[in-house]
Amino acid sequence: MRLSDFEISSIKTLAKHHFGNDVQVFLFGSRTNNQERGGDIDLFISNLNGTQLKTGEKINFITDLILKIGEQKIDVVLDNPAFRNSYFFKTIHKTGIQLC
């Protein structure tokens, strides 16, 4: 996994701040592969208590994360029951790395 301890800690802290203590965050995409270089930070965020996550929270989370770790390309996908049967969703859960 190509994230620093500081980046992981920042993601966890800010995710809990914006989405609550029941938040789950998965890293997926190229940053999960130690052999690759570069790439954006791809995060999938869900909530164990079933609360629907809001786009405004996502925007605030990304903004605060950039302010904390520095400007980087960060993509955040929020859990959505409508896409749980999709190949994309299944791939994230199969290959993603859970951060919290």
UniProtKB/TrEMBL annotation:
Listed GO MF terms: transferase activity
Pfam families: Polbeta (PF18765)
Coiled-coil regions listed in the entry: none
SUPFAM superfamilies: Nucleotidyltransferase
Keyword annotations: Transferase
Gene3D superfamilies to which the protein is assigned, alphabetical: Beta Polymerase, domain 2 (3.30.460.10)
Domain Polymerase beta nucleotidyltransferase: 12-99
Protein's name according to its UniProt entry: Nucleotidyltransferase domain-containing protein
Natural source organism: Mariniphaga anaerophila
